[in-house]
Amino acid sequence: SSIMSLSEAEVQSARGAWEKIYVDAEDNGTTVLVRMFTEHPDTKSYFTHFKGMDSAEEMKQSDQVRGHGKKVFSAINNMVQHLDNSEAFLGIVTPLGKKHATQLKIDPKNFRIICDIILQLMEEKFGGDCKASFEKVTNEICTHLNNIYKEEGW
């Protein structure tokens, strides 16, 4: 049972698109975070250990940035594997959303920023079709995260 607005064919092509970028999860995850921190410097304030880093080069070398980049990609990978199982999908998204809303107090707009940078990277590396087939997935993820935030009183 899918809560997603994605057809079986869309799920399959989204998985194919994601696999291409997930092969290099740590490098691509790092690229995404470094872009976010450089293009939206306010996002760095959530990460105490990244605050002092100004250059993209310095961030790229940081174990913490690399570690978190990999973590972000692993979480999305879990979601992508469960796009056709709404219960399992929500089982991943819900605790993640709650933690970011209540403990980490991360502004939910940052999820959209990360997703847009991932889409941008997909397009650069693998073309527009790759990006297009993953776009609906990022919308689903962001919608569900926003709903969790609303439930938590944001």
TrEMBL record:
InterPro entries: Globin, Globin-like_sf, Globin/Proto, Globin_lamprey/hagfish. Its EC number is 1.15.1.1. The keyword Amino-acid biosynthesis does not apply. It is an enzyme of class 1 (oxidoreductase). Residues 5-150 form the Globin domain. Coiled coil: none annotated. Pfam families: Globin. GO terms for molecular function: heme binding; iron ion binding; oxygen binding; oxygen carrier activity; superoxide dismutase activity. The keyword Transmembrane does not apply. PANTHER family: CYTOGLOBIN (PTHR46783), GLOBIN FAMILY PROFILE DOMAIN-CONTAINING PROTEIN (PTHR46783:SF3). Involved in oxygen transport from the lung to the various peripheral tissues. This is superoxide dismutase. The lineage of its organism: Eukaryota, Metazoa, Chordata, Craniata, Vertebrata.
